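To the wet lab folks,

You asked to see what we're planning to order before we commit. Fair enough. Below is the target structure as tokens, and below that is the sequence we designed to fit it. If anything looks off to you, flag it before the synthesis order goes out.
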């Protein structure tokens, strides 16, 4: 009977990330100062990493790239930070 190895990297939980973006530095090395690119997140993931006998847990933002692949923002090249998108719309009051 074969043994199932424990995953070294696994997603424990996913929750919506409405209103959040991942910010990346667009660095093309073309002589123009780098700009930032904001990519909308669709979810937050609680991720467990196991390295030998040490386990750590962190939260990362998930997004879908141009090829339709789901990626963890914090592990992508040129990742800078997460930002909350400011919304100027406020819910209409019912006048009561």
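Sequence we intend to order:
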């Amino acid at each position: 009977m074969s043994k199932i190895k424990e995953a070294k990297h696994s997603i424990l939980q996913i929750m919506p990330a409405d209103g959040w973006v991942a910010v990346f530095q667009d660095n093309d090395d073309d002589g123009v100062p780098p700009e930032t690119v904001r990519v909308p997140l669709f979810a937050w993931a609680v991720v467990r990493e196991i390295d030998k006998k040490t386990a750590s847990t962190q939260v990362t933002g998930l997004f879908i790239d141009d090829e339709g692949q789901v990626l963890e923002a914090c592990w992508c090249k040129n990742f800078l930070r997460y930002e909350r998108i400011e919304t100027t719309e406020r819910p209409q009051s019912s006048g009561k």
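Structural context that might help your review: The chain has one domain: 9-84. Strands lie at 9-16, 20-26, 35-40, 43-51, 54-64, 70-72, 79-84.

Thanks,
Computational group
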